[in-house]
Design a protein that fits this description.
By secondary structure, the chain is of the alpha/beta class. 30% of the residues are buried. It contains 8 helices and 15 strands. The two termini are 38 Å apart. Bound molecules: adenosine-5'-triphosphate and magnesium ion. Adenosine-5'-triphosphate binds next to helix 3.
Length: 289
């Protein structure tokens, strides 16, 4: 009989994704005893271990089956063109891959960059984008400080990750076009896995979904006149039917429900107009639908 293998998850060793990834794993119940300056960390309470590596290496490690799962930005997975399956968008590490050119040059669109030199850490994605436009560009692969290359006359424009755009501004660059919206994702190897690993992966997926749902939902409570119930039930985009409780004042009821965070202000105003008072919103630790 083959020995039971530990489920191995590749995560970024040290960078923007590291802490959020560890928090996510802890939130779904996987405990670790310190991960800093370590390459391989075993979970305390599951047959799971983390391999801490550079984010650039994660998709290929997962593709080759060295790791079963990985947490990495879509930008990296797409650039490496690794053969993996995206299991879940994780809603952190949001950024965009954009083309930018010096403000000092009168370039107003990426379409004007045909034949020009583009510095980037993402030559595959950059080339693909310009190919779609029917343009050929010369990509120059740079692994860091891409934003400085136009000033050094190494490149005419850049294609780089942006979140707020302040780095571009500081370096006298103007964002012309976004070629990709990215966030962190959970990826899985396409190699066949033993049943105990797929079972564990499915279990974690359910927990991650619950976690993401909880983060994006709020528990709301309010009091309302009994006759407002039908109207209030109409307003709330409830995940479940609301809980209705009697109050000491027989003409009044309390209503409890869960709503998506994006709807909160809109819903709140409508509830107030429908007669709800004392509306309270609470965060949710976790939920399973
Ligand atoms: P490593 O040493 O692991 O290769 P890195 O320098 O390539 O690290 P980080 O800067 O830590 O990577 O970024 C990791 C990921 O965070 C990016 O690939 C991207 O998915 C995401 N990200 C979110 N916002 C930004 C941003 N403003 N700039 C760069 N990456 C961002
Ligand atoms: Mg990297």
């Amino acid at each position: 009989m083959e020995p039971v293998q530990t489920l191995r998850i590749a995560i970024q060793k040290s960078g923007r994704l590291t802490e959020k990834t560890i928090t996510l794993l802890e939130n779904i119940g996987i405990k670790f005893d310190g991960y800093k300056n370590r390459l391989l960390v075993k979970a305390l309470n599951f047959d799971v271990e983390l391999l801490l590596i550079r984010d650039d290496d994660i998709p290929e490690y997962v593709q080759d089956g060295i790791c079963d799962l990985g947490v990495v930005g879509a930008n990296v997975t797409l650039e490496t063109q690794a053969d993996v399956t995206v299991l879940k968008d994780l809603d952190f590490g949001h950024c965009r891959l954009s083309i930018a050119s010096p403000v000092s040059r009168s370039i107003s669109s990426a379409k004007e960059l045909g034949g020009k030199r583009i510095a980037t850490s993402y030559p595959v994605l950059t080339k693909k984008y310009f190919e779609k436009l029917g343009l050929e560009v010369k990509t120059i692969k740079i692994s860091g400080a891409v934003e400085i290359t136009p000033r050094l006359d190494v490149a005419d424009a850049i294609c780089d990750l942006v979140s707020t755009g302040s780095t571009l501004k500081t370096n006298g660059l103007r964002e012309l076009e976004t070629i990709l919206h990215s966030q962190s994702q959970l990826i899985r190897t396409n190699k066949e896995l033993p049943e105990h690993k797929t079972e564990l992966i499915n279990k974690f997926l359910v927990r991650i979904e619950g976690q993401l749902l909880a983060e994006n939902s709020r528990y709301i409570m309010m009091n309302a006149p009994k006759e407002s119930l039908a109207r209030i039930t109409e307003i709330i985009p409830a995940l479940n039917s609301p809980t209705v409780l009697p109050l000491a004042d027989p003409s009044m009821i309390a209503i409890h429900t869960v709503i998506p965070i994006t709807k909160f202000w809109e819903v709140m105003e409508e509830l107030k107009a429908a007669g709800a008072t004392g509306i309270v919103m609470l965060p949710i630790q976790n939920m399973i639908n």
